[in-house]
Design goal:
Layout lengths: L1 H4 L7 H10 L5 H13 L4 H11 L3 H10 L11 E6 L2 H5 L2 H12 L5 E2 L5 E6 L11 E3 L2 E3 L7 H14 L2
Parallel strand pairs: 1-3
Antiparallel strand pairs: 1-4, 2-3, 4-5
Length: 166
Amino acid sequence: MAEASAKKVELSQELLEFIDQWKEKPGSLIMVLHRVQEEYGYVPRGAAFEVARTLEVPLAKVYGVITFYHLFKLKRPGKHRISVCMGTACYLKGGEDIIRELENLLGVGINAVTDDGEFSIEAVRCVGCCGLAPVVTIDGEVFGNLTKDKLPEIIATFRNRTETGL
């Protein structure tokens, strides 16, 4: 019955070929889920059903892997993914203040997406830029030595990129 409620997802030919290459190898489920997330930006429910069917593994095992590893997302992220480092150096240098200010500026909390779908915020353990603490990455671009007053301009830059199609 649960399968009927999942929106049917047609996996791309490239993804099906990737699954076929990995199907018999140890660790195939994790590799396939990485590829699914690479293609969709998250793991849609319908894709999880298709992965389970195609790899011939129980759906519970697929969801067990997705929910165990924090890297996998079950919800579509914002167009611009904001990751706030909360590693020791960033935490001690104001990481929590950065999160609070982003929540205030964007009107959403951690692991949420703005109503317009433009931004999502997540806290991450460490981005490896401890000397630049506190650090935020947006779409992989690193912003270091941050203060709350720098955030409005950074957010505006990404809003402009959306508006201008860059």
